[in-house]
Amino acid sequence: MLLDSYMDAGVLVAADLVNRMVIRPEPGADTAVLREVLAVDPPSAAQLAPGHVPGFAALARELHAVFGELGGGDEDAAADRLNRLLAAHPAHPHLAKEDGRWRLHHHPADASLVPMWTSICAEALARLLGGGHADRAGSCADDRCGRVFVDTSRNGSRRFCSTTCQNRVKTAALRRRRAAVDD
Question: What angle do CA 51, 54, 57 make, to 5 degrees?
Fold first, then answer.
């Protein structure tokens, strides 16, 4: 599944925020973690300050709920939550010239950092849902993990956040099958 660059950034940052600020928070490294998450947009990473952390933490919690609702098949609840986020931080598309090329942005031109990324992430997930691809937002099938991801594979069959988790689950299943045969 191909996403446009803006949607790609929005859904991937959304998943990263959830994974790194909710699922597996790194205590005391909030600003450093956010700088890594926002590295997809160097100007955002450059203007990040410690005062932005609580806003991004709140956004990460909201996005975690959206991923949970989508993963649980409750598209209506996810849509309601996304609509509330978009109402509070509406997308106002505008063109901006970057490196000599025009680029369409989906946030108010004068938006501060947290509202800007709230708009970007909420709109990207709303596009995913509105495009009939809600099943592409998932949680890792490894019960010990819980990370979220967006499945961009061609066939939409991804079940794990990484090959590490996939290998761990499949190896454990193989060991259980072998142990059952040996008994």
Answer: 135
